[in-house]
Specification:
Length: about 450
């Protein structure tokens, strides 16, 4: 780690003014001079720097803050660079032609550079400073647009490691909340009273897990206790917001660590209750394997389809639902269809999965039936179906995680993709005659064959 013990140097900006919220706690910031820290502008986004320089030129304050500073201090590549300023969103818009104002809950300026966006946030103050407006009776923040000073802004951020500011005027780092120490100690610590801060915004529970997983940090004890105590509040979070948060937990290269922590804190139940209720060893192995593969793909720069991720996270629920259905009346395909539909419908009460992901997710499940029932020349058609690749990967995953009774199914599909068209036909014919012999030997009819296939997939 590049970090030295530079935070011990008390900065020149020392104000020695007590913190109004916590009497007796000194809120003077620690300021680390540019010569005493390892943050370098060459590691920062040129677009973020452009925004900062323009703010400075117009005589506004300008700081890099959040993940950008935190990750660079840890020698990691930040996912994005956030800017904080004393300019209001409207003032920011006047400075940049390529700027749009977004958000109701948080009003933010987005400065566009082609496909790149730099998020510029005006310093915000805490809600105590506006007489409770914008807060529900349970203490949940619904609007957060009270502007404040840099110091106010620092204290209303979530975790100490996220409240470090890089000053564009003199390239120093400013730390009001003890974030540098927590980076050194690898700790996720809530700023202020953890219960209150989780009541204001329960999503902070998931953010704590996300940063602990991403940075391999420990969640500080009182925060950990507070998560356990307030866990039920997650059920009141808008389901669309949870969809976004879940993607952030799983699509940034630390999916497995996130999953382990969600289980440890019993948070899985509040995101995927059907999965949590039906999570046996096989299901757990399946999800673990899916997330190992997800992390590996991200590391290689390969894309991950949210539909595939959600299909995997809900697979234990689909399997349980299938077992609960009456096979006698339904074909394998129909059982998958009904089970998939039921699981998705229930899941929407917790997380709003948009249709554009929900539809392909269900296709991945129903394709499992199509991959199993390989009648006549149907496999040849399946090979060219758009969702084939995802469904095939899903099948391999099921095999990899040791799902019983699949045996040679994945291998058969691997083989048929590799051989010539003529050989593909031979493979299909061979399979059909094998099925016929099996059926005759057992002296059973068509329906029984179907039932056996269903059983194979239980
Ligand atoms: P990353 O971008 O790597 O996921 P980040 O720390 O930059 O991590 P963002 O979601 O981009 O996280 O948010 C930027 C900053 O805004 C955070 O570092 C934090 O200071 C503040 N922030 C974001 N969400 C919240 C929240 N729910 N409550 C309080 N502060 C928040
Ligand atoms: Mg960020």
């Amino acid at each position: 780690m590049k970090l030295t013990k530079f935070w011990q140097r008390i900065g020149r900006n020392k104000k020695n003014k007590g913190n109004a919220d916590t009497p007796g706690v000194d809120s003077s910031p620690t300021v680390i001079d540019r010569s005493d820290h390892a943050l370098s502008r060459k590691d920062m986004s040129e677009h973020a720097l452009k925004v900062l320089y323009r703010l400075k030129k117009a005589r506004y304050e300008g700081y890099l803050v959040g993940g950008g500073v935190r990750d660079l201090l840890l020698g990691m590549h930040p996912k994005d660079f956030d800017v904080a300023t004393n300019a209001t969103p409207e003032e920011v818009r006047k400075l940049f032609g390529n700027c749009r104002l977004i958000g109701r809950r948080f009003r933010l300026a987005h400065v566009h550079f082609g496909r790149n966006i730099i998020e510029v946030a005006t310093f915000r103050a805490s809600h105590d400073q506006q007489g409770g407006e914008g807060v529900t009776k349970d203490g949940m923040i619904v609007r957060d647009n009270v502007y404040g000073t840099l110091e106010d802004d620092a204290w209303r951020r979530d975790f100490t490691v996220n409240a470090l500011y890089y000053n564009i005027y003199d390239f120093s780092i400013i730390d009001y909340t003890g974030g540098l120490k927590d980076i050194e100690n690898k700790t996720i610590r809530m700023i202020g009273d953890a219960d209150e801060r989780l009541q204001e915004d329960p999503v902070r529970m998931l953010r704590a897990v996300r940063f602990a997983a991403k940075l391999n940090f420990k969640i500080e004890d009182s925060l950990s206790e507070s998560i356990k105590k307030n866990i039920h509040l997650l059920d009141g979070v808008p389901t669309a917001r949870l969809f976004e948060e879940v993607l952030k937990l799983f699509l940034h290269g630390h999916a497995l660590a996130s999953y382990e922590l969600l289980k440890e804190f019993d948070l899985l139940k509040h995101l995927f209750s059907q999965t949590a209720e039906n999570l046996d060893d096989a299901g757990d192995r399946f999800i673990t394997q899916a997330l190992i593969n997800t992390d590996a793909r991200i590391k290689q720069g390969k894309p991950i389809a949210p539909a595939f991720l959600y299909a995997a996270l809900l697979w234990p629920a689909v399997r349980a639902e299938m077992i609960g259905l009456k096979y006698d009346d339904l074909s394998l395909l129909q059982s998958y269809q009904v089970a998939g539909q039921n699981v998705l419908e229930n899941q929407l009460n917790q997380i709003l999965i948009p249709k554009r992901f929900g539809i392909p997710m269900r296709e991945i499940w129903t394709m499992q039936a199509r991959l199993a029932v390989r009648k006549g020349k149907r496999p040849l058609k399946l090979l060219s179906v758009p969702r084939f690749r995802a469904a095939y990967d899903f099948l391999l995953l099921r095999e990899q995680s040791g799902e019983t009774q699949l045996k040679e199914l994945g291998e058969w599909w691997t083989q048929i993709q590799q051989v010539s068209d003529d050989e593909k036909l031979v493979m299909c014919k061979k399979l059909s005659s094998l099925e016929r012999t099996k059926g005759r030997k057992k002296g059973k009819g068509k329906k029984q064959v179907k039932k056996n296939i269903v059983k194979e997939n239980e």
